[in-house]
Specification:
Blueprint lengths: L2 H9 L9 H36 L4 H4 L14 H9 L2 H32 L5 H13 L6 H10 L6 H5 L6 H11 L4 H9 L4 H12 L1 H17 L2 H6 L8 H12 L4 H21 L1 H12 L3
Helix pairs in contact: 4-15, 5-9, 5-12, 5-14, 6-9, 9-12, 9-16, 12-16, 14-15
Length: 299
């Protein structure tokens, strides 16, 4: 009896041929190639405009308008950066941005921590409703509140003030949500031991909960810093004095004063606005990823 006949008569079916390792790896390899290709395209979309902006900030005016476009400047024009400070009070813009960013991001983190702590560790009536309100606030575009906030700030006399820029945006529903999700993953035994040791809510928050939540705190702080630094529309509405303008609004003043044709000076100002926050983001990017992942997952 042949091999085929014994196999057929013994089991009634012929075993399927085994797939080779190469055949199994080929689809995965194609997926990896497509994934890396997509990452390269996305990186080019983000990096190329920033590279052009940096090179344009070092060009003469006539070099920017050359056709076909010339990437490298013929001679580095560092004078464009000096013209930024000579045309507008750039130092005032920088100081205002630092103050509003530190105050705004700092209060957002503190308020988010305290609100999330109450939602997780404090029992009070309507806690679920409060959390639903926080989630609903995530869905509301900030432009919806511009007119009511502006009316309130104008009536209180806070136009052209730091509090007028900072206070309307202090509530952070995103920070509260991320903190709450992360707090639910904290070990209960540690907090119970702190309670038995006589620690109150304030001490439990700052001596136990916050140190255990360092990655999430760093992530929320970084997101808040970037948002406050890049904020444009609200400071534009509540400030009309150059001494109170922030950096994004100051770029508009620089464009109006120096003319829209002198792109070298305007690109130099844009580089100066972007560089500090870009360095901060690159330095803390690992904490951002770790914190967002920790805040998004809850047991």
């Amino acid at each position: 009896m042949s091999v085929e006949q014994r196999t057929t008569s013994g089991s009634g079916r012929i075993p399927a041929p085994r797939s080779s390792g190469r055949e199994l790896r080929e689809p995965k390899r194609r997926v990896d190639v497509l994934g890396y290709a997509g990452l390269v395209v996305a990186a080019l979309v983000m990096v190329v405009p920033m590279l052009w902006m940096l090179l344009a900030s070092l060009k003469q005016r006539n070099e920017i308008y050359t056709i076909p476009a010339r990437w490298l400047p013929h001679a580095l024009q560092w004078q464009n950066y000096a013209d930024v400070f000579a045309t507008v009070p750039f130092a005032h813009f920088l100081l205002n941005s630092v103050i509003t960013t530190v105050l705004g991001a700092g209060f957002k983190v503190v308020l988010g921590l305290t609100c999330a702590y109450a939602l997780v560790f404090v029992e009070f009536p309507g806690k679920r409703i409060v959390f639903l309100v926080v989630l609903a606030a995530l869905m509301v575009p900030p432009q919806v509140t511009l007119i009511p906030n502006y009316t309130l700030i104008a009536q209180t006399g806070w136009l052209n003030t730091y509090q007028g820029i900072v206070v309307p945006g202090l509530a952070s529903s995103l920070g509260t949500f991320l903190f709450r999700q992360h707090f639910q993953t904290l070990p209960v035994s540690v907090l119970e031991a702190a309670t038995l040791d006589g620690a109150g809510h304030w001490r439990r928050l700052w001596q136990f909960v916050v140190p255990l939540s360092a990655p999430t705190v760093s992530a929320v702080a970084l997101v808040s810093v970037v948002g406050e630094w890049n904020q444009y529309l609200w400071p534009l509405l509540v400030t009309d004095r150059s001494t109170m303008m922030t950096l994004p609004v100051g770029l508009t003043l620089l464009q109006n004063n120096d003319g829209i044709t002198n792109w070298g000076v305007l690109m130099a100002g844009t580089v100066l606005v972007m560089l500090p926050i870009l360095l901060v983001f690159l330095f803390f990017q690992r904490r951002l990823v770790a914190g967002l992942a920790a805040g998004a997952l809850a047991n």
